[in-house]
Design brief:
1 helix; alpha+beta; 4 strands; globular; 31% strand
Length: 65
């Protein structure tokens, strides 16, 4: 199957733990979860995945280990 470009995307409730990982890590997690919850468009370019929303854009690069 081939993905359609600029499709809409919705993310449902996200489960997290209550473990405290320090202030910096907690702020990064909070920002990431907010970005994921508010995104509404995805796109691909090459092997990269772009997720965009009101709070900005997340870019995921494919990585092989």
């Amino acid at each position: 199957a081939y993905p359609l470009q600029r499709q809409g995307l919705a993310v449902g409730p996200i489960a997290t733990t209550k473990k405290d990982c320090g202030a910096a890590a907690m702020e990064a997690e909070k920002a990431f979860l907010l970005a994921i919850r508010t995104l509404h468009v995805w796109n691909t370019k090459g092997s990269d995945l772009f997720l965009a929303g009101d709070k900005g854009e997340l870019i995921f690069e494919r990585s092989l280990f």
